[in-house]
Amino acid sequence: MLFKSNAFKEWTKRNFSDKIKKQNMAIQQSDKQLNTVPQPPIVVVMGHIDHGKTTLLDTIRKTNVAARESGGITQHIGAYEILVESKNPEYNQRKITFIDTPGHEAFSAIRARGTKVCDIAILVIAADEGVKPQTVEALNLIQQAKIPFIVALNKIDKPEANPDRVKTQLAELGVLVEGWGGNVPVINISAKEGKNIQELEELILLVADMEGITAYKDGPVNGVIVETKFENRRGVEVTAIIKNGVLKIGDPIYTASAIGKVRTIEDCNGKPLKEATFSSPVLITGFKEMPQVGEEFFVGEKTEEEIKKADIKRDIKSNKSDQEKNENTLNLILKADTIGSLEAMKKILSNLALPEGATLKIISEDIGDVFVSDIALAETAPAIILGFRVKIPKDLQIIIQSKNIRIYTFDIIYEMEKFLKQEAENLFKPQEPPIKGRVEILALFSKKRSEQLIGGRVMEGRIVKGAQVKVQRGEEIIGQGKILNLQSSKIDVKEAQEGKECGILIDSSTEIAVGDQLIFQ
Fold this sequence. Notes:
The chain has 521 residues and is α+β, with helices and mostly antiparallel strands.
């Protein structure tokens, strides 16, 4: 058991004994004056892709979220509340709220946002793979947020698991874990087999107690917007974490950029609630506009005029003006199910390597399914529509086909990334200028099998050595051939321009006659 280790006891004594006394005194004093109470900790789970973050939460919640995620990769922030079942009466029946952050690098903005709303972080590292680039990124975000964290060495059940190697890698990054000369708690777990999961929950609550996390039970209600999306039947849906107070149905609610009135509240399992209190993750409907992820929300009145005066600039806006047409620019219309997904799409686009002189231009970006206005804009611009986890209504599919609109939808972020890379290579691949011209045949000099030496005058455009041509007689195309060589004034040349006479060696099975024309396209 982790709590029986001498190293852990020494760590607790060394780092928290004095802190507990001071904080308990401060809490007691603040309880009398401000009516604060201990708050269930809000925990963010971070780490490299496929190191087991979602599987860990899956085990804790005893659900099957990982199997439902497209490709087994978390695509959105999820907030979940659990009730700890422990033999230790100090921790039994206490609540913990977990925030699961996606692991793909495109979602770094979401992961950064996760640390802003949480009290404690769990840095999940696969014991068989060790520290990876996104592990370092997650660690940097945690340290920037200045929150306590726990290192969870996952997949300890694997034969190749090497916890000491991971601890060495962390030490090289300046992170010294408990037992290795530092004070960062570390625990070996197996999310797949459920090993040491209860111990991890108890460790979280211990750290929360040491940190003295409290909230206002009464008084002003506030919290943080974690995710937003638009549902056709329910309107704006907001995932939020309540930080203080009690949120009730009917409460007027606002952020810096949106106002509304709480119409419905649901817990993390979709159960309808009449009210919810601090640390609870809830799904709220009732906002008139789409609030921005990361904004604080408050209960109270705020008019639309006040929002306008504040000159809040929306992240999601249409750039339908300024549609200059450029053959080296690919216009894009982005559609996504949530703001987090939209940010991920834009990050991929910003990091996409393009040929020199080529650009991608986002002319519109929005949340929700594809609408008629998107189709109209795509036709006018013209533009490609890229959708992430959105639907195309059946009545629009016929219009899309008839207008030959290019639209692509994806459920997995790296599939969209792969598509865009290929699309950029194909679209912006340097191409030779098209060969266009017409030559009238004036003379026939010799013929050897399919090779014919003829003379002609370029009537329009140009003729180029190596080009494929069509042989036209009157109004009919009678054959084709390839220009093997060109001469002008008995000198080999690569091309002959309009108005010039030239000698032509052509390979064609068609017997060419005076008066025929060679067509270049």
